[in-house]
Amino acid sequence: MPEVSRFYGIVIKIFYDDHNPPHFHAEYGEHEVLVSINTLAILSGNLPARALGLVAEWASLHQRELLTSWERASHLQPPGKIAPLP
Predict the structure, then answer these.
(1) Please, are residues 83 and 12 in contact by the beta-carbon 8 Å criterion?
(2) How confident is the model at residue 77 (pLDDT cuts 50, 70, 90)?
(3) Residue 58 per-residue DSSP state
(4) Taking the domains of the chain in order of start, what are their residue ranges?
(5) What is the pLDDT of residue 17?
(6) Are 72 and 2 in contact (CB under 8 A)?
């Protein structure tokens, strides 16, 4: 499960050859959410409110890059890295 970004204790991952719709995993401690890349809606899971807000902010800034990473991973290629929140 390749890590594409890490910031403020949050780890963003995109799995190789994962199921549709295009999404990423955000982990914070023992919490995890799956977030749709196209709509930025939560598909499953939960995070504390502050962490979820940071994930939403980061994803909205990097949505196009996330789609590119998803495409790479869906073809079993490394998804690459995406800049963290400052």
Answers:
(1) no
(2) very high
(3) H
(4) 3-74
(5) 86
(6) no
